[in-house]
Every structure is written in C-alpha cells, then in structure tokens.
Amino acid sequence: xxxxxxxTELQLCFNKTHFQRSDFNVERFVNLAxxxxxxxxxxxxxxxxxxxxxxxxxxxxxxxxxxxVNLSSGLAALRDSVEKVSSDVRANWTSFxxxxxxxxxxxxxxxxxxSSLGRCQKLQICQGDxxxxxxxxxxxxxxxxxxxxDDEPTxxxxxxxxxxxxxxxxxxxxxxxxxxxKSEHIQPTVLNMKIECYRKISExxxxxxxxxxxxxxxxxxxxxxxxALIKTINANELAICRILNGLVEKKIxxxxxxxxxxxxxxxxxxxxxIIEVRKSCSERAKRNAQFTREVVIFIxxxxxxxxxxxxxxxxxxxxxxxxxxxxx
Length: 328
Fold this sequence. Notes:
By secondary structure, the protein is an all-alpha fold. It has 10 helices and no strands. The N and C termini lie far apart (157 Å).
C-alpha cells in the first residue's frame, strides 16, 4: 500500500494510515471516528474503501498476470530458440565429425600412396644408380680395351696427359656410382667386370709409373696423375711392390759385392744411392709441376720400404756370417 494519505481522493471520513500502524486497535479507531461522523457514514466509507482495495488488488493481479504471460511467452520463445540452436549445433557437429572422418580417410590414403611412391622412387633411384654403375664400368672397359688394342707406337702417342685425364674421369665415374650403390646387392658379374677392368688398368699404370721413376731420359709428365689414379683404384700396395722390385732390378745396392765390406758401409752406400734416386725423380717432377704432396708421400714410402727390406736382409746376412764364424 502507498505511504501517502489519499483520503481526499476517496472522500473518506477516516485516515487510511491508521490501518498501517502496528498498534492498530478497532475500538480506538471507531471511537475516534464517531467523534466526527455517525456509524452509518463510517460503515459506508469503510465499504467504499474495501471496494477500492479490492479493485486495486484486481488491477495488481491483472498487471502481474500480463507480465507473467509475457514472461512465459518470452521463456517459451527462448526455449524454442535454444532448442533450435542446440539442434543446429548438433547437426553441424555431426556434419563436422563426418567430414573429419572422410578427411582422415583421405589423409591416410594419401599418406599410404606417398609412402608407396617414396618406396618406388627409392627403388627407381637404386636401379638407376646400378644401371649408371654398369654403364660407367662398360665405358671404362671399352676405353681400356681400345687402349690395349693399340700398337706400341700409337700407345706412346696416346698415353699422354689428355688420355690420363679421360681415364681419371671414367674411373671417377665408376667410383662415384660404386659409392651410391655400395650398400645394395650388385650382381657378381658386374663386380667381376669392375675387378678385371681395374686389374688391367693397374697393370698399365704400374708399368707407366715404373718408367716415370726409373727412366732418367723421360720427363715425369704424368707422375702426379699416375699416383692419384693408383690410389683411386686401391693399388698402392702393388705400386710399392713394383717400385721395390724396380729398385732391386736396377741393383742400387748389391749386398756382399765386396768381400769383408762392413754393414755400415753398406748402409751408407744404400742411403746415398736412394737419396740420388729421390733427387733425380724430384728434379724431373718439379720441372713439370708433378712433385705434389701425394707424390712425395708415395716416393718416400717406397724408399723407406726399400730401406727397411734392405736392413732386414743385411742383418740376416750379418747374423748368418757371424754364426758361420762362430761355428768355425
């Protein structure tokens, strides 16, 4: 109820605020009203005020009901909207999961195809490398066979720097493709072809190397190339043995040539002649820019091996003569 006095609006004979007091008393209210009006007038005003209260309550209930109806309608519409949105979300999610599943299937299929394609590509590259290796070996063999078919005068003309350069390129190609397929299974016929071809090449290179080192009338035009090629085809040990045999054949040191010659004199003689051989070879190589680091290492290795072999032989002879003298 409002706190203001609206008696003037209703033209009542009493103050409505009396009903709002906590200490309201009917007898006291009636006694106060009888001082101004009669009981009939008081009764009539009370009925008017009662109707007023009833009408106010009806209006309040109607207003609240209208708000309730509007609120209920709004809630119903909101619920319908929420259900529609939820339905759309579920439908979209279902469509999304279906699309994701299809995409995953496509992705798996693509990945499998890529893996298969990668394996095929690796196999293709491997087969291509094997074919390239076979072709490079065939080219090298044809080059070597053509060289072997030439007669001696032609051989002297063709065995020059250009020929060695071509040979180096062909050997490099074989070594390159061999390194590409070294972990793969290669047919024995191909390997045997390579081994046989390298054997022929090594024989020719070793003979040429021997001439380069021991032929003092010949300039060392291709010494560095020969050493490099021999190293490439893994024929270093054979080359060292060939040079050692050449030193023995040239009779640089003749053990026991002079009866009673001391071991020290033999060593000095051997070292002197070995130094002369190295000096002669180095001078001829330097004139043609052939005295490279690889050549120095190779020549020194050969000479050191020769000295080592000479010492072993010299000491064994000395021990043998000592044993004979001791026995006598």
